Structures are given as structure tokens and as C-alpha cells.
Amino acid sequence: MAVPSEGQPIQIHSYKHDGNIHRVWNELTVLKGTRNLVIGGNDRTMVTESDGRTWITREPAICYFHAELWFNIICMIREDGIYYYCNLSSPFVYDHEALKYIDYDLDIKVFPDMTYTLLDEDEYEQHRKQMGYPDVIDHILKRNVDKLVRWIRQRKGPFAPDFIDVWYERYLYHRK
């Protein structure tokens, strides 16, 4: 698998289990790129939905993708604190065209006080039946929901107190 370079702008392509494109983020500035981990930053980037609609992100974000974990984490930097949007997804791949993953509907929203809410369980069940998610995927995703909750409670990875400060400073450096 290719590895994106620090400072390189890349796209993010999110797919559904059936192979159809779900969403494309026009730009992510790579802050760290290895075979297993990509950390990137963006601010006011264009996002294109599968139906062609577009929108612009409202705030700076630090994004965390791992090649062995079934989730990714978007850390949104807002005036009243850091909000986290955690997508249950396949591990990422990077192929020079874009960083790519399969979105599996389930999400966890984490608030600045580290309380959290599991979202889209109905959508997950509907798509699991509609697209035929295998039982093994269902089990993996449920284990990864549990892992994410442990990370949130333990302030691990992107939830660590200094994570955003370190990576946002690096993002600002690359934006110069």
C-alpha cells in the first residue's frame, strides 16, 4: 500500500458496503502518514455527497485513520470545545488517488465534556439487511464500538488531552 507524505493534500473517499461512493472530502492535509496511520487536517473543505450535493465543512478538523482499526475519528475544533465524530468503518487504504474506507453507518458523537451518544443504529440495521453485511462484519463492528467507548473513557488516542494541540499546531504550520 502507498503511503501519503507529510504536507501532501489528499482526498478522502467514503464508500458503502455495496461499493457505491458515499461521500468525498476534497482535501485533507497529511500531518502524519505511515502504512498503519494517517493523521490529517482540514478546514472549510468541500464535501460531495453521493447524490452530487456539496457542502463546506464549518470548522478546522483533525482526522485520524488507522489501517487496523474499524473506525475513524474526526476531531472538530469549535469555539466551545472539541467535538468528535467517530465513524464505524473498514480500516483505510491509500492508493495515490485517495484515502478510502467503507462507512458502516454506526457513529459515535463525543461532546467536549467527553459524554457520547451512539448514532444511526436504525440506519445500520436497515443497511445490514439491504446490503447483506456478513455476520463477521457485524461482530467486528460491535467489538469496535466497545473499543471506541473504552478509548473515550480512557482518553486514549485522539481523545487524549494534548492530541488536538499537537496536531492542530502541525496543521497550522503546513497551511503557511
Describe this structure in words.
The protein starts with 8 loop residues before the first strand and ends with a helix. A seven-stranded mixed barrel has the order 1-2-3-6-7-8-10. With 176 residues, the protein is α+β, with helices and mostly antiparallel strands. The longest helix has 20 residues, at 135-154. The chain is built from three helices and eleven strands. The chain is globular. The protein has one domain (9-175): FomD-like (FomD barrel-like fold, Beta Barrel), CATH 2.40.380.10. The protein has helices at 121-131, 135-154, 163-175, and strands at 9-15, 21-33, 37-42, 46-49, 54-56, 61-66, 71-78, 81-89, 93-94, 99-110, 116-119. The model has no long low-confidence stretch (mean pLDDT 97). Strand 10 (99-110) and strand 11 form a beta hairpin. It comes from Bacillus salacetis. It is an enzyme of class 3 (hydrolase). InterPro entries: DUF402, FomD-like_sf, Ntdp-like, SA1684.
Strand order of the largest sheet: 1-2-3-6-7-8-10
Total number of distinct structural domains = 1
CATH superfamily placement: FomD-like
Tell me the Rg in angstroms.
Answer: 16 Å
Number of beta strands: 11
Q: How many DSSP H or I helices?
A: 3
Largest sheet, in brief, is:
7 strands, mixed, barrel
Low-confidence stretches: none
User: What pattern of helices and strands is seen along the backbone?
Assistant: EEEEEEEEEEEHHH
- β-strand percent reads 35-45%
Helix-and-strand structural type: alpha+beta
Shape: globular
CATH topology: FomD barrel-like fold
Oligomer class: single chain
| Average pLDDT score | 97
